[in-house]
Specification:
mainly alpha, 3-stranded antiparallel beta sheet, RagB/SusD family nutrient uptake outer membrane protein, membrane, cell outer membrane, TPR-like_helical_dom_sf
Length: 467
């Protein structure tokens, strides 16, 4: 497909647009002073890009802050000022849990507007329409995966027939109780996520012309990377391996030589939003003196409210492992870690990166084929990168692992070290049969369905067991 001509500063412009779908009058609020209809918004490319930007912005809201941190603050790698999520002491009226539900469905609805309505109204180039629909499908898939991790009963434990969340695939046209949907199964939601991504991949861009677009809009490799993770979670190891290999073959992304290059501290006053070439997808929330500068990631690590654990977890890293010194600077007085390093120098929020894909490949390969050179090589690439050239340990070989389980244990240990403080530890532990902590019963792995959803559907949506 030919390279599409899109607004050079696409995300700078559209992240600023407050694009909200009105539930009652089917209007899209594009700016405080102007109201336009769906038809007006979707007829031309510029308006459609603004709606799409609103969907990206909504996905950021659904993925940042508490939604991001729950993956770490419940597992012991970080200390926290709250224990509710770590112990499951939540109820169905918890406002944070309610926001996880509402922000993701808001995102899904904005994506649905583009997916379902753009073919009806658009008058611009068909190939560009298809690409924008592909980006919307990526966004919808991401939001449904967020919901599945939070609310799917047993979704992380391979219980595919259990209940997940309602699959809303049509744009919201005003409340109609007869259109309420029950919860779909975990299997159905996993399948829809992969279907959206598989349909998006052929029409997405390989490469954008600007750094910020390349790393914060959906590309073919970003979609494949998300699919790699989703397939791994659903235990479809063959698919995860296939997606991973396709991402790793993309010359537009590369593993950094040093881990500190992946998380540069953004300079105050700098207008450029820098992303490492290792980043497959993230949100540009840098301090850039532009319209996105106040879109903070809301990650409490930067403020010291949640602190990386230095009593146990930090000490599991080798002394010469650069991640130990970079992620835990000044351990004696540690308040924050390098990944979210400064409350006033806003760091981009990274969601998918290449080292995870190598670990996905290693895990999928080991599950499929046992101890193989391919699995060990993928592990080595991440492990070796963590050390200075003159301090690198010896390469692992297949003879170092007497069984498939020993190799998997080592891969998962590396995953915990590499992806610490990136919101994944809770889900990795649950999906691999390990309790996040001793105080969290398995009946509370899934969060409670917000009571409002049960009430407004007259009980059509059922509560998760244990609440």
């Amino acid at each position: 497909m030919n390279k599409l001509t899109l607004n050079k500063n696409f995300l700078t412009a559209v992240f600023a647009a407050a694009v909200l779908l009105s539930a009652c009058d089917k209007q899209i609020d594009l700016a405080p002073e102007s109201i336009t209809t769906e038809k007006d918004a979707l007829t031309y490319q510029k308006g459609t890009e603004r709606v799409l930007g609103g969907a990206y912005l909504s996905l950021l809201d659904a993925s940042k802050g508490d939604a991001f941190e729950i993956g770490d603050l419940t597992t012991g790698i970080a200390t926290s000022f709250t224990t509710d999520f770590a112990t499951g002491a939540l109820d169905s009226r918890n406002s944070i849990v309610g926001s996880f539900w509402s922000t993701n469905y808001k995102t899904i609805n904005l994506a649905n507007v583009i997916i379902n309505k753009l073919p009806k109204y658009a008058t611009f180039d068909l190939s560009i329409q298809n690409q924008l629909i592909g980006e919307a499908k990526f966004i919808r898939a991401f939001a449904y995966f967020n919901l599945l991790k939070h609310f799917g009963e047993g979704a992380l434990e391979g219980k595919m027939d259990n209940m997940a969340v309602p699959l809303r695939l049509d744009a919201f046209d005003g409340y109609d109780g007869s259109q309420n949907l029950p919860r779909a199964t975990n299997a159905e939601v996993y399948a829809q996520i992969l279907k959206d991504l598989d349909e998006a991949i052929p029409v997405l861009m390989n490469k954008f012309s600007t750094n910020v677009d390349q790393h914060s809009r959906a590309t073919k490799s970003a979609a494949r990377a998300l699919a790699s993770r989703v397939a791994l979670y659903s235990r479809n190891y063959a698919k995860s391996l296939s997606y991973s290999d396709a991402v790793l073959a993309d010359v537009n992304f590369k593993l950094e030589n040093r881990v500190d290059l992946v998380f540069p501290i953004n300079g105050m006053g700098a207008r450029d939003i820098s992303f490492s070439d290792e980043i497959l997808f993230g949100f540009p929330v840098s301090w850039n003196k532009d319209v996105t500068q106040y879109k903070e990631h809301g990650i409490y690590y930067a403020y010291g409210f949640i602190k990386p654990d230095t009593t146990v977890f930090m000490k599991t890293y080798a002394v010469t492992d650069m991640r130990r010194s970079k992620f835990f600077p000044d351990a004696a007085n540690l308040k924050r870690n390098m990944k979210f390093s400064h409350p006033e120098l806003l760091d981009n929020l990274i969601m998918l990166r290449l080292s995870e894909i190598l670990l996905n490949k290693a895990e999928a390969e080991a599950n499929l084929n046992g101890v193989t050179a391919a699995a060990v090589d993928a592990l080595n690439k991440v492990y070796q990168r963590a050390f200075a050239n003159d301090q690198k340990p010896g390469l692992y070989t297949t003879v170092d692992f007497a069984s498939k389980q020993l190799l998997l244990d080592r891969i998962l240990k590396e995953r915990r070290w590499e992806l610490a403080f990136e919101g994944q530890d809770r889900y990795d532990m649950i999906r691999t049969g390990r309790a996040p902590n001793a105080s969290l019963p398995s009946s509370k792995y899934a969060l409670p369905i917000p009571q409002r959803e049960i009430d407004i559907t007259d009980g059509l949506i059922k509560q998760n067991p244990g609440y």
